[in-house]
Amino acid sequence: xxxxxxxxxxxxxxxxxxxxxxxxxxxxxxxxxxxxxxxxxxxxxxxxxxxxxxxxxxxxxxxxxxxxxxxxxxxxxxxxxxxxxxxxxxxxxxxxxxxxxxxxxxxxxxxxxxxxxxxxxxxxxxxxxxxxxxxxxxxxxxxxxxxxxxxxxxxxxxxxxxxxxxxxxxxxxxxxxxxxxxxxxxxxxxxxxxxxxxxxxxxxxxxxxxxxxxxxxxxxxxxxxxxxxxxxxxxxxxxxxxxxxxxxxxxxxxxxxxxxxxxxxxxxxxxxxxxxxxxxxxxxxxxxxxxxxxxxxxxxxxxxxxxxxxxxxxxxxxxxxxxxxxxxxxxxxxxxxxxxxxxxxxxxxxxxxxxxxxxxxxxxxxxxxxxxxxxxxxxxxxxxxx
Length: 386
Description:
The chain is mainly alpha-helical.
């Protein structure tokens, strides 16, 4: 028996797995995981606090800009009754107020506080999830060096997906293309080699086919519809982000025509443009259109992760190295908000539809029940905004 190594055994998937751990390395692995867990808990608090701060930004900036804009519009309307005397001061005073509102709107539309809040909320939730995973590894398993590396990769991937600073690394709020949020380390591609098919570890040929059908439904319905609605949200947000500063800028420019032959039209532009700017600003930031776009981006990442997880297990040649089939089925069912029978019915319906080649798939069901009604509600709101 070796004196410099401790042999530990555990039951996993009905097999005895032998783990040889060095006397020196095992305590170090535990210490590293505890250190990572503490850092993750600290990140949860940071993202939570910063999310609350940026939610305050959204409320305070929205209220302040609308107050400035409506006050300037009111002053311009009162001053329109007389172009001389003390009322002239009201007209001239409304100009710097409009200019201030325009500058604040440009900054607010650039950083999209409601979208920042959603980013921090997602980051806090995912870091909590990672904290629970590390805690479970320490409590129920025998951690190894690979667990430390995996935890480090997940932390760095989350830091990249949801950065804390605004300057330099802030996520693009108006990207040219809608890309899903990616908060997990990319799976390493495996080289597939033809081998004899063997069942085991809760997997069977029928179960594999079910998982393939579910991936197909996610790609055809959930991912496709989520991407389409994300594009609509992005387009609507762009229009609103441009319209607000444009309207307040027009109102400010109306000062140039004060006292001229076009004075009545100038007064109308100053008042109407200011009022419309408040409406547009309320629709964009009060309606949190940026948050809606980030929600779709996050949902698309959720579906992308589900696809990659299922495909990663399906491409693993050794069924013993896959996740246990029964546990994996439960995991997928819970993620999609379905029962076991609902999951099987979804796969069967997809298989039946796929067998009818050349016919369009009509009224195909969404894979996820969690986001179905959210899709419908958001679509109605976006149609109104659009």
